[in-house]
Please model this.
Amino acid sequence: MKIDTFETLEKFRQVREQLDPGLFITALIAALLAAYAAAGMYRFFYERRGTGSQVHRAFPLLAIAITTLFIGVQLSIPLSLGLLGSLSIIRFRTPIKEPEEVGFIMLVIAASISAATFNFRFLLLMYVVAFISLLLTRGARAWKLFTRDGVLVLTVPAEQAPAHMSAVETVLKSRLKRFQLESSSIRDGQANFQYVFSGLKSDVPQLQAELARQVPVQSINIFLDRPGGIR
Model:
């Protein structure tokens, strides 16, 4: 028993000697700065559509904990097994509600591992590429919103649909700059037509009123695109 205790103390002494406090603090600071940068990107690109979880508040603590964990794993195999075993008691009771949150959490984890292995250049390059990719995603969404204003769904009696479709397109041409029939279906005596459109020339109520005057529609639904997800 005394031999085992002595060997354990000797192993911990070797671990303590291998750990340079300066490098450890440097890794923690780098991981912490990366976590704050990830939180800033989260708030700028995504938080506006958040579900209220505000997961970015956990980024600093995640970064510190993960960096310390992986530094410990590198220094001692027995210690690493004990650390990984202790993680088995952790359970996440609240599921992640938005897929974007997974991406930001993985970004924090990757940054913390890079800091723990002292690959600060990789960390910096990863954040540059991540920021550029978010900008490109935001630009692609902005272009999509620019080229499409929304979706129009019409429901008319199936037997009257062929006779009135020309009147529908006449109204759409007068009220919209561009439109395209995306899908159509007939069910239970009702014909449903879905149009994508852009360049709305009038207010939505005016478009709905004009369609109701020209065509015996059963329902008119207009869904306007709005910024959501990564901005």
